[in-house]
Amino acid sequence: MKPIQPKNKTAFFLLTFLIILTGCSLMNDSFSENDNSIFNINNASKEKLLFELPSWPPQNDCNYPELYGWKIKITSAHQKKDYILLQEEYIKNSTIYAETEKNMPLCITAEPVTFVFNSKKYLSDFYKPAGAIYPYEKPEENIRKLTWQSGYTAYIMQQLFYSSDNYSNAEKTQTFTASFNWKKFNDYIKSKSEQAFSENKCFNPWLYDTETVLTAASQRKFTAQIFSAKKVIHITQNNLENININDIHSSYVPENEQIKNGTLSLSYEKNNFFCKNDQYLIIYGKTNSRTKKFSVQTARLPILLDGL
């Protein structure tokens, strides 16, 4: 299976330019600075790593569709490995293996591929991936867990690696990626999630524009200000037209627990995609001028017929 090529040409060219630059002064809330003292590229030994996949269905919730398998991507400056772990294999062993240079940045994403509701004929990759970043998350008994909260951080790191596909010097790519404070970024996502949960809300990092995040990272302006609260709104059943909020599924798994409590997060003034069985629910992040509520449109859920 071929690695997905970067869709973000802006980030690619910016990254090409910045790969030859040295450091710059940065703000205190920046994720673009890191202590590289743990990295020794010229004398890196190999390390074998074990990662544990999340449970499916999450929280043993029968409202999730049946799992077909996991779309696994293991990415570093020196490797880009994609494969499908089928449900039958996942039941037998929920851990996956990777090998990399010790303390060198590596990310793993695991995207659930599910059967479309009430059908074993069609597949969908609606849900966002879980993920893990190495060496920034500590293992438990030598096993690192892939979590839904870390999926976004792992995805951003992955896209930076993918944008560097054409570099002949993997060490430069590795040095550039290692310059970011991935632990700080990941801890920020987790702390925002915990804070929102305490307020009966959900912090969904996938609502923010990925191109903006990647461009900011390439320009070394990768700060918490990207995730401004002004860009996201939280609504309840009273704000929705023609749909029961409890029938909606978010592509970001942690948000579905908050939806059960009657709260939904939307990106302001753009299309937000949810699902109900085999349908997309599209909610535009701006109220109807007449009803002052958010209208819901439906479309067929994208189906994966081949290519897995």
Description:
With 308 residues, the protein is of the alpha+beta class. It contains seven helices and 14 strands. It has helices at residues 9-18, 87-92, 148-163, 170-178, 182-198, 210-218, 253-260, and strands at residues 46-52, 67-76, 80-86, 95-101, 106-115, 123-124, 130-134, 143-145, 232-235, 249-250, 264-267, 271-276, 279-284, 296-300. The strands form four sheets. Strands 2, 3, 5, 6 and 7 form a five-stranded antiparallel sheet that branches. It has a four-stranded antiparallel sheet with strand order 10-12-13-14. It has a three-stranded mixed sheet with strand order 4-1-8, with no helix packed on it. Helix 3 (148-163) runs antiparallel to helix 5 (182-198). The protein is globular and about 60 Å long. Residues 1-27 and 35-41 have low confidence and may be disordered.
Give a quick rundown of the structure:
The protein has helices at residues 9-18, 87-92, 148-163, 170-178, 182-198, 210-218, 253-260; strands at 46-52, 67-76, 80-86, 95-101, 106-115, 123-124, 130-134, 143-145, 232-235, 249-250, 264-267, 271-276, 279-284, 296-300. It is α+β, with helices and mostly antiparallel strands and 308 residues long. The longest helix has 17 residues, at 182-198.
Strand-helix topology:
Blueprint: H1 9-18, E1 46-52, E2 67-76, E3 80-86, H2 87-92, E4 95-101, E5 106-115, E6 123-124, E7 130-134, E8 143-145, H3 148-163, H4 170-178, H5 182-198, H6 210-218, E9 232-235, E10 249-250, H7 253-260, E11 264-267, E12 271-276, E13 279-284, E14 296-300
